[in-house]
């Protein structure tokens, strides 16, 4: 009897102790999950813009790569390290776009969620069409607004999981953004639809427009496959000179984050005009033509329409 009593006592005691610990843990978790704004890090300006739209006033978003810089090759700066140390959650594009993710992983503490947007997005992937990485998954999915929708859905889910108290706000802002992205897709379809069929050839430095070309009915090629590889080798240049001579496109296009010297050399050699810049791997400055995702997509579409013989409004 005595034994039973003391056993019961110890059960009650340990139960009380466990309850106490549970209470303390849930209070500290609740504090961590509700503090506003969340410190959010994105690897470059394009995903940072999409994350900002969903986070609203509940997030403070920092882009590791500054606008105008190349997102494929980047080296973390002292301020990047500080941002990663403070981060509650980190978003990156993935599919090997950011060649420097091992540095990010090494810096982050293990409990900080690291969200790979393109890999988690529910959207069909396309392969890289040329170069050293030909056949691997092309990371530039956001160039189709419907894929950007899939990014936004992943962002909303991830933020809601991180901070359940504001889940409704994240989902509401995501829904507004998704509606705007579908409207953008419709607008671009009409705008680009005026380009004659025989002019729908989009040749750039980096072959980063496969998703865009697939969405809007272009044939696409680039001097190299992605900016992660050597740019402008003689064989890459010769291949595109052959292509230009065969297909006779109206223009070649250059992009904002890389030198236009290879495109310029090919254009000179083949007597085709050049146009640009197109924006892909970075937004422009606030004063530039691609200050946010929507402006980037509209700027590219108008430049293509105006250069390739589409009908201007
Ligand atoms: Zn790229």
From TrEMBL:
Pfam families: ZnuA. Its main location: other. GO terms for biological process: cell adhesion; metal ion transport. Belongs to the bacterial solute-binding protein 9 family. GO terms for molecular function: metal ion binding. The chain crosses the membrane at residues 12-32. Keywords: Membrane, Metal-binding, Signal, Transmembrane, Transmembrane helix, Transport. This is ABC transporter substrate-binding protein. It is found in: Cell envelope. It comes from Vreelandella rituensis. It comes from the Bacteria. GO terms for cellular component: cell envelope.
